[in-house]
């Protein structure tokens, strides 16, 4: 396995953006970042590969140079914690993300729209993980309101993240048809995305929604495909989640790695110590 320490060459911003939100999510080792924005891209890419320890180090490497980026840093840390089941701790970071950009008055830039939307969607996901479904719904509505204004650039990412959480909320409420509806909305949004990681995550949400309407065989088949795609693109956390869904909907294909072994690999990469 290549060492993160072997990454000695300097990136262009487009290379790190492509690893974080484009077509090369499994690229490793990653080039070095030259500024705080690139450092954020780099940390997002590392976490998508399950390299949470390296991602946390990267996120601390350069202080954000504006409040919107600082808020995105906090939201990003929160998302890592949720991915390993630490919703209570994630809420502290999402709360900081909201505090940094504020919620009084209209957003003054597209960066502020993105940061506010991410923070509120993160808080909605935290509330969902703690069983506070009505609060989660309220926060999703406030997140949507941030994207309904003159500075909304039509970026697919904030709306897509909100659609994932809306689908997950419907699943937790036992609303299978609502889960499928929100998952289909996510898929439509993902059609405008260049990010393979986001496309794979959307397919995972769709597979989970199928299981909620009793389409167990289809859900299992879809989850198997997600696990293979995540493995092919080096997306260990998504591979782990898809594998758990496979195990809950009929089992693994021959040759697939069990979820417990994938979880152990995430731990080795720093997932259990993400903070």
UniProtKB/TrEMBL annotation:
<protein>
    <submittedName>
        <fullName>Uncharacterized protein</fullName>
    </submittedName>
</protein>
């Amino acid at each position: 396995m290549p060492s993160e320490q072997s990454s000695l060459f300097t990136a262009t911003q487009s290379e790190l953006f492509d690893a974080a939100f484009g077509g090369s999510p499994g690229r490793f080792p990653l080039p070095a970042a030259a500024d705080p924005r690139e450092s954020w891209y780099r940390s997002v890419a590392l976490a998508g590969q399950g390299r949470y320890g390296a991602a946390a180090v990267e996120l601390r490497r350069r202080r954000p140079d504006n409040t919107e980026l600082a808020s995105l840093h906090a939201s990003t840390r929160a998302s890592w914690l949720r991915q390993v089941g630490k919703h209570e701790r994630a809420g502290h970071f999402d709360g900081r993300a909201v505090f940094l950009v504020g919620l009084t008055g209209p957003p003054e830039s597209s960066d502020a729209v993105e940061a506010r939307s991410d923070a509120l969607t993160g808080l909605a996901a935290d509330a969902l993980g703690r069983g506070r479904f009505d609060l989660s719904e309220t926060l999703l509505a406030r997140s949507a309101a941030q994207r309904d204004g003159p500075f909304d650039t039509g970026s697919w990412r904030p709306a897509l993240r909100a659609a994932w959480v809306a689908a997950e909320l419907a699943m937790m409420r036992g609303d299978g048809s609502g889960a499928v509806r929100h998952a289909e909305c996510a898929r439509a949004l993902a059609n405008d995305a260049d990010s393979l990681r986001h496309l794979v995550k959307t397919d995972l949400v769709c597979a989970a929604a199928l299981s909620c309407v009793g389409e167990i065989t289809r859900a299992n088949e879809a989850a198997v495909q997600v696990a293979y795609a995540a493995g092919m693109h080096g997306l260990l956390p998504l591979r782990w989640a898809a594998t758990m869904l496979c195990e809950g909907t009929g089992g693994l294909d021959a040759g697939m790695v069990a979820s417990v072994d994938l979880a152990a690999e995430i731990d080795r990469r720093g997932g259990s110590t993400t903070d």
